[in-house]
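Field guide to reading this record: the first block holds the primary sequence, the second block holds the structure written as discrete tokens, and the final block holds curator observations. Each block starts with its own label. This record concerns TetR-family transcriptional regulator, catalogued under organism Streptomyces spiralis.

BLOCK 1 — SEQUENCE
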Amino acid sequence: MSHRPFHHGNLRAVLLERAEAVLRERGIDALSLRELAREAGVSHGAPRSHFADRNALLDALAERGFVRLADEIREAASRAREDHARTLRAAASAYVRFAVREPALLDLMFTAKVEDGPSEAVRSASERLFATMAEIMNAGVEAGAYDACDVGRLTLLLSATVQGIAALVTSRRITTPQSEALIDDAITLFLSGASAER
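BLOCK 2 — STRUCTURE
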């Protein structure tokens, strides 16, 4: 079988876009470098210049997911900066929207694929997400919602709470409207608990 000439400006970006579509439509088991090459119209070995193997492709997808989720949370939070409770709700809602739109990608982002843990690129991208959450919590310190010494613990608690709500939605245990009500309740408890400890 002859391959069409390759005319994409950036093969890596094309492969990642297609891989995300495959992940979304058919799941992780359907991801194959050979199949992605076929769909991109390049030789089956061409993707190896960007991804050493399938795990490298999965890492690149996870890295992209973390970066995109962090950016979406930061953007949502920036539109609600005037009130810390609204900022927390906006960030949590952005997280859940991402989970609803990209459940397979979110699962991939938080699933260890190798025994020795995530690659340095994935670790760095996940740290970007948690740094974004920490920025939001630091804004709460500046607004007087809680003490600075609480920021690390509260960031982890908020992240775990939102991840749990997202998991409930993506597993269809609750609906998206129910998730919004749950977010409201969680943020109310979160802020009242933080202020009670002060």
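BLOCK 3 — OBSERVATIONS
The CA atoms of residues 27 and 134 lie 31 Å apart.
Residues 6-51 form a domain with the Arc Repressor Mutant, subunit A fold (CATH 1.10.10.60).
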